[in-house]
Amino acid sequence: MDKIKYLSRINLFKDLDLEQLESLAPVTPANTVTRKTIVASPHMPQKRLFFVKSGMVRLYRISKGGKELTVDILGDGHLFGEVGSFTTGSENLYAETIVDSIICTIDKNQFETIITAKPELGLRLIELVSLRLKEIEEMLELMAYGSVRKRLLYLLHKLCQKFGNEQAIHDEKESREGWVQLEIKLTHQELASMAGSIRETVTEQLKDFVAEGMIRKASLRNPLLVRPDRILTALENCD
Length: 239
Prior knowledge:
The chain has 239 residues and is of the alpha+beta class. The protein is built from 9 helices and 13 strands. The chain has helices spanning 2-9, 18-24, 108-117, 119-145, 148-163, 172-177, 188-195, 199-211, 228-236; strands at residues 30-33, 38-40, 49-54, 57-62, 68-74, 79-83, 86-87, 94-97, 101-106, 164-165, 180-182, 215-216, 224-226. Strands 1-9-3-6-7 form a 5-stranded antiparallel sheet. A 4-stranded antiparallel sheet has the order 2-8-4-5.
């Protein structure tokens, strides 16, 4: 039943009933992967699709100078990888677990079996990949034309959507005001890598966000409290 529970958390499978989930269980093997393990890279010959049943995975690329550039952070229910000619927009990237994670993998034959038996999953998969590609396009546009402030606001907005936890706020006043806790810990350097900036600039910008009442704590080593509504408003008004 634990395997069925984890399958139901995957965005691709969340609308399936119990019988459908049970039929998928044999062809979607899952493994527990310890933190800081590279589960996919451009150098791995066999291409697969990966589903994060539980945990967190960092997608990054390595520049010609050897610098790691974080592209995305994925949590419960997200997918990445490629099979055959099908890709989720994460090709040529490294994927590394941030925490101990439960990850399901399927190869080309398993993928074709699932899609043939359940065409509706193919449509759902196209929808999820389209959303991923839209995010990538938005971020690339911000990298080219947006200020560091706008890039950070966009990243915090996306992190709120993926990892914001309202239930973690126990203070009644903070809960009424709309504060949520980010269930992910990132250093200023990691956030700078995602924003295409440098750590010092990001640190100063985060201090501004604290002063503007959008976040609590300028250090992302500890759980960060954020106001998603204020972040979204600031993003919409940012040049």
